[in-house]
Each structure stands twice: as structure tokens, then as C-alpha cells.
Specification:
The complex is a heterodimer of chains A (383) and B (262). Chain A is α+β, with helices and mostly antiparallel strands and 383 residues long. Helix content of chain A is 52%, strand content 15%. In chain A, the strands form three sheets. In chain A, strands 1-4-5-8 form a four-stranded mixed beta sheet. In chain A, strands 2-3-7-6 form a four-stranded antiparallel beta sheet, covered by helices on one side. In chain A, strands 9-10 form a two-stranded antiparallel sheet. In chain A, helix 3 runs antiparallel to helix 4 and helix 6 packs antiparallel against helix 7. Chain B contains six helices and eleven strands. Chain B has 262 residues and is of the alpha/beta class. Chain B has one domain: HUPs (Rossmann fold). The chains are: A alpha+beta (383), B alpha/beta (262). Bound molecules: flavin-adenine dinucleotide.
């Protein structure tokens, strides 16, 4: 048997998702990018295959696999369609995961089981019009009134918002305390005062459904407080640590797709009497792509393995996402270069990969913020 | 209904085949393998029959160690268990030999239905299934596109030439070879993948099948496998001259005795 870093199940999962993504997702990717149509049919099919609950135990409706398996699946889906990948990543890592990690048994039964089994779709509401990187500066508030909390504020950039059933929402229960006064709540779709706004018209991941949410006197039962009051900021950071592994995997997938398309094109296109793939300038671009993709993938897998082993992984996840997303920007940009003028048109997918990749250096921690995270973790060792 | 599905692994489509220096075969270790296309449809057909009428789906695979991957994929899609024969030591791999060994593995299972792909994408002989039926003494139909279960047997639709079909009734047990593209093949679910390792894969040695090395030795079926080679290209053209009747005679003679095309 050939050497493999993956278990037999992980290999089978990767191969299954690769085939599924190639046959069912990729053929729609260009069209839904154009029309911004959320890939709902694909999401339903993915639910049937068990892809909406990969890292959660079977008793909560999940597949009983791990973070590593989720990373493998997200990479394969990103190769076919960045939008579909982002939707799945946000559902799994940002909504279902905090409920799994911090929710009570009743909350898991009520909300995690449908999310993990794919009966429900999830969203995560942290960012606001006035606060993204500086999430602690959020101004949404939650005031306890008897059996309820009453929420008021505005959220922005909520992935899956138009179709989600379940939202994890962060709000200040003790605004005086700054980041130590934030709490997380589970809010159901359709709750009065929880108003989903208009779809954003974006550069990339255009089919992923991103919307603002305005929260106006929204009454949430006190049972829907996630974990303890005022622990929300830490919960958000832990959630994002895990989410970054997913965005790292998405970056690797986009870069891989760009490299595969560019390498194949370099073996077809002729100029000055030879294949463009014979020019050293092109070969070096491809070699850099291959090298950076390999490094990024290993970093993503390593962070995933640390998480699965229950070890600290904040720094490694931040590094993996930082490196892979920036590598994806270089790879997708150079893929357009290798395609020349054709690459600049929508007749080929490489410009879409580049637009989709741009999200990976912004969402779930911008590159700048990730450098802060990495340096903070690093300098702890020297303090 | 107990259904046995014969599945084989073949080199991935569009593989670059490199012939060994001694022309004995191609370099297999440089190839990637996948489940033979029509075998996928045979498995899908079996799984659907089981879902509709109950019973058991058993995969039967022969090949070197690597074919266990194909078995795992089939089990992940929903087959109940598998029989595996390692043929790494067989020196004969023609359809006669294969059918002989497969028949020995199938007989004791007494299935109601045996399904095989129409043909394999590597050798493309289309023989194994039908010889197997003969060896098992079962009625068979080839190029099957649809199966209906009757009270006392089955009714199948088989493909004929130029868009024609034929419906035939068969008693059970029977053997069918299945055409590609007849249904939508399912993907393995993650649940299926996780369950696959808990399912039984029974490894059968020749002795378990009541066969010996001589049964699978080169030449045992009368077929003499000489060499594998790339069709030779020659740039020779022969122009026959003379009156048409004479030229036609010369041409017929050359086709018959030199080119041996008839
Ligand atoms: C398509 C999409 C989907 C998204 N999905 C979600 C979602 O589902 N849920 C959710 O809550 N959010 C989501 N977001 C929001 C995303 O997480 C934020 O956009 C991101 O965190 C950046 O925040 P910001 O946009 O407010 O930028 P800002 O924080 O305003 O940053 C602007 C610039 O300043 C830089 N900067 C900020 N702080 C520092 C610093 N300390 N040092 C150096 N530079 C700094 C940034 O790196 C950036 O270059 C999504 C965003 C997009 C585009």
C-alpha cells in the first residue's frame, strides 16, 4: 500500500467529495457566480451525503469524523466552487461548532442535531457595520427582561443569512465590561425583530448568501443563552480559531484548482513556436504555486490534527490560514497571467478563483489581524 | 433476494500505458485504478433491487491487494459484505480462468441473482459474465438495461443494435450483464464510509474454492497469451494495378492470406 498520511476513512471521504464536487458542484459554479444564486440544491445533496455535520458525533446527528476530515472536504469543494465551500464552512465551523462546544445538552438536541444532519442551515453573527476586526467594539446589546433577553443592534456580513434556520448572535450583556461583557445567543429564523436584509453584491464568493441583519427589540428566551453570560468573546475567538482551519482549506482548494487549470493550459497554448509551458517564466510560476500549495496544505492539516488531538492550535491555525490565503492570492493571480487575455474573461474559471480567493485574506481574520495573532502567540514565548 | 455483484478494478480512463520490456504486460505499478464503469451500474442495480425487495448484496472481487479499495467503496455505498480472491499468483488471467474461479466462489453462496458489468474497460472482452453463467449452469442475458421483479422470476430489458430493445423473462437464479449509464450511480455517504470497515470481507484462497495452482496456470484454458505490443505503424502502401477483375482477386487474396482479416 502506498504511504498515506490519511486514514482509510479520510481517504474515502476525500475521494467521494472530490467526485461529487467535480460532477455536481463544478458544472454550476460559473452560473451561480453570475446569478448569485445560493447553491441550495447542492447543499441539500451534501446534507444527504452527511457533509453538513462532518466533525460532530453521531449522537448529535453528525458523521462522527474530525477536523481533518472537514478540512479535506472543504478543500475538495473549494476546488469546484468557492461560494459553496464558504457556505459549508460557515455553517459547520461558525454556527454548529460553538453550539457543540458551548451549548447545553438541550441546546445540542434542539439545534445541533438538525444542523449536523443537514435539516437546518446555520449562520454566525459577530461582525457589525462599525466593528469587524475589532469585534469587541460591537454595539449590539442584550438586556435581560424576565424569561427573555431583548436584543438590539445591527449585524453585517452574515454568511448564509437568507437561508439559515439557526443563528449564533453575539451581543453585549454588560457593555461597561467591554470584551468581558459579550454573550452569545442562539436565535431562530423568524423570531420577531430579527430582520434579514438585502443580499450583498460582492466581488467574489458571489453565490454565498451574505446579508446584514437588523435586530430590533428581538426577544430571545433565556434558555438560548449559549454557555455562560459574558463569556461570548472567548467563545467567538475559539470558534474563529477552528474556522480558520476551514478557510485555510478553502484557500488551498482554490489555489489547487488554479494550478491545475494553469498547468493544463500551459501544455496546450503555443507561442513563438513552442508550448508556453516550455518557457521558464511559466514553469517557475507553476513551481511556486505547487510549492506553496503543498506547504499550505501541510499547515492546514497540521493545525487540524492539533485540534483533533485536543492540543493548543491557535497560532498554527492562524499561520495556516494566513499563509494559505496569501498563497491562494498569488496562485490565482498567476493563473490568470498564464492564461493571458483569456484568463481575464469569464470564459475561463481562473478569474473567479482569484475573486473568490480575495475573501480568504479578509474573512475570519484579515491577514493583518492574523499577523497580530501569530505575533502575540509567538511573543508570549519570549515575554 | 441474494445478489452477488462481480466487480473489477481497471486502470483509470486515459491512463498512459507503458508496456514492459519483455512484452508480458503493462507496468501496473505506475497506474491508478478505478472500479470498472459498468460494474458501478451493476452494483447500483443490485442496491436498488435490495431496497425494493429486501435481501443481501454481496460484492465479489478478484485481483491483487489494491482491489480491496474497490471493495471498500462498494461496501460504503451499501453492499452488505464482500468476497475477495487474491489472484497475484495466477499466471493465467483470461476470461475463462476468471470465470472458473469466480464460479467456484459463487456456487456455495447459492445466490438468486448474479450481476456483472457488460465488459471491462481494460481488456474489453465482454466474455467473463457469460462464461460464468455457463459455468454456473444459470440462464443469462447480456446488455441489460432494466430489471423488473416478477412473482416467479424477472423480466429484463436488453439492448439490441441501432436503438432496438427486447424484453425477456427469466427464472431465478440467473446471471445478467449490465450496461453502463442505465441509472444514476449513488455516492457513498459518510455514514456508509464509516460503516464499511465493520462489514465482512472474506478472503478466499484457491484451496477454499476447491481449485489448485494448475487451474490458474498459463495455458490451462487453451488460450496462449503471447505478447502485448503497440500496433505497429508502417508507411507502406501497395498499389495494385491491372484490370478491375484481376485487381479485385489480388485484393481478396491479400486480405485473406496476408492480412488475415477473414
Ligand atoms: C463574504 C464575507 C463573508 C463574511 N461572513 C461573516 C459571517 O458569517 N459572520 C461574521 O460575523 N462576519 C463575517 N464577515 C466579516 C469579516 O469577518 C470581516 O469583514 C473581517 O473580520 C474584517 O472586518 P471589517 O470588514 O470590519 O474590516 P476592518 O476591521 O474595518 O479592517 C479594515 C482594514 O484595517 C485593517 N486592520 C484592522 N485592525 C487592524 C490592526 N489592529 N492592525 C492592522 N490592521 C488592522 C484590516 O486588516 C483591514 O485591512 C464576512 C465578510 C465577508 C467579506
Amino acid at each position: 500500500m502506498a504511504y498515506s498520511e490519511l486514514t482509510e476513512e479520510q481517504t474515502m471521504l476525500r475521494d467521494m467529495v472530490r467526485e461529487f464536487a467535480k460532477n455536481e458542484i463544478e458544472p454550476l459554479a460559473a452560473e451561480i457566480d453570475e446569478t448569485c444564486a445560493y447553491p441550495i440544491d447542492n447543499i441539500r445533496q451534501m446534507a444527504e451525503l452527511g457533509l453538513l455535520g462532518i466533525p460532530f458525533p453521531e449522537k448529535y446527528g453528525g458523521a462522527g469524523m474530525d477536523t481533518m476530515s472537514l478540512a479535506l472536504a472543504l478543500e475538495e469543494i473549494a476546488k469546484a466552487c468557492g461560494s459553496t465551500c464558504l457556505s459549508l464552512a460557515a455553517h459547520t465551523s461558525l454556527c454548529a461548532t460553538p453550539i457543540y462546544l458551548f451549548g447545553s445538552e438541550e441546546q445540542k438536541q434542539k439545534y445541533l442535531v438538525p444542523l449536523a444532519s443537514g435539516a437546518a442551515i446555520g449562520s454566525f453573527c459577530l461582525s457589525e457595520p462599525g466593528s469587524g476586526s475589532d469585534a469587541g467594539a460591537a454595539t449590539t446589546v442584550a438586556v435581560r427582561e424576565g424569561e427573555h433577553y431583548v436584543l438590539n443592534g445591527n449585524k453585517l456580513w452574515v454568511t448564509n443569512a437568507g437561508l439559515a434556520d439557526t443563528f449564533v448572535v453575539f451581543a453585549k450583556t454588560d457593555p461597561e465590561q467591554g470584551v468581558r461583557g459579550i454573550s452569545a445567543f442562539i436565535v431562530e429564523k423568524g423570531t420577531e425583530g430579527f430582520i434579514i436584509g438585502k443580499k450583498e453584491d460582492k466581488l467574489g464568493v458571489r453565490a454565498s448568501d451574505t446579508r446584514p441583519v437588523s435586530i430590533e427589540g428581538c426577544r430571545v428566551p433565556k434558555e438560548n443563552l449559549l454557555g455562560e453570560e459574558n463569556k461570548g468573546f472567548r467563545q467567538a475567538l475559539v470558534t474563529l480559531d477552528g474556522g480558520r482551519i476551514g478557510i485555510g482549506a478553502m484557500s488551498v482548494g482554490l489555489a489547487q484548482a488554479a494550478m491545475e487549470k494553469a498547468a493544463a493550459y500551459s501544455q496546450e497554448r503555443e507561442a513563438f513556436g513552442s508550448l508556453i509551458g516550455d518557457f521558464q517564466a511559466i514553469k517557475w510560476m507553476l513551481a511556486d504555486m505547487a510549492t506553496e500549495i503543498h506547504a499550505g496544505r501541510l499547515m492546514v492539516h497540521h493545525a487540524a490534527r492539533l485540534r483533533d488531538a485536543g492540543q493548543p492550535y491557535t497560532k498554527e491555525a492562524a499561520m495556516a490560514k494566513l499563509f494559505s490565503s496569501e498563497a491562494a492570492m498569488r496562485a490565482t493571480k498567476n493563473a490568470i497571467q498564464i492564461f493571458g487575455g483569456y484568463g481575464y474573461t469569464r470564459d475561463y474559471p481562473v478569474e473567479r478563483y482569484w475573486r473568490d480567493a480575495k475573501l480568504t485574506v479578509i474573512g475570519e481574520g484579515t491577514s493583518e489581524v492574523l499577523r497580530l495573532v501569530v505575533s502575540r502567540e509567538l511573543l508570549k514565548e519570549f515575554a | 433476494m441474494k445478489i452477488i455483484v462481480c466487480m473489477k478494478q481497471v486502470p483509470v480512463k486515459d491512463s498512459l500505458l507503458k508496456i514492459k520490456d519483455d512484452n508480458s504486460w503493462v507496468h501496473e505499478d505506475e497506474l491508478n485504478y478505478e472500479i470498472n464503469e459498468s460494474d458501478h451500474y451493476a452494483l447500483e442495480t443490485a442496491l436498488r433491487l435490495k431496497e425494493a425487495h429486501g435481501g443481501e448484496v454481496v460484492i465479489l472481487t478478484m485481483g491483487p491487494e489494491r482491489v480491496k479499495e474497490a471493495i471498500k467503496q462498494g461496501l460504503a455505498k451499501g453492499a452488505d459484505r464482500a468476497l475477495y480472491i487474491n489472484n497475484a499468483d495466477f499466471t493465467s488471467i483470461d476470461p475463462m480462468t476468471n470465470a472458473k474461479v469466480l464460479a467456484a466462489a459463487i456456487s456455495p453462496e447459492t445466490p438468486d441473482l448474479v450481476l456483472a458489468g457488460l465488459q471491462t474497460d481494460d481488456n474489453g472482452s465482454g466474455q467473463t459474465g457469460v462464461i460464468l453463467a455457463e459455468n454456473l449452469g444459470l440462464p443469462h442475458t447480456s446488455i441489460v438495461m432494466e430489471i423488473e421483479k416478477l412473482d416467479n422470476g424477472i423480466k429484463v430489458k436488453r439492448e439490441l443494435e441501432s436503438g432496438w430493445f427486447q424484453w425477456i423473462e427469466l427464472p431465478l437464479p440467473a446471471l445478467l450483464t449490465i450496461q453502463s449509464g442505465i441509472n444514476q450511480i449513488r455516492y457513498a455517504t459518510i455514514k456508509g464510509i464509516m460503516m464499511a470497515k465493520k462489514k465482512e470481507v472474506k478472503e478466499l484462497a484457491l484451496s477454499d474454492l476447491g481449485l489448485s495452482g494448475a487451474d490458474v496456470a498459463a495455458g490451462s484454458t487453451g488460450l496462449d497469451f503471447q505478447k502485448v505490443y503497440v500496433p505497429e505503424k508502417t508507411k507502406q502502401a501497395l498499389i495494385l494495378e491491372g484490370d478491375p477483375k484481376d485487381v479485385a482477386e489480388q485484393l481478396a487474396d491479400k486480405l485473406k492470406n496476408e492480412a488475415k482479416v477473414f
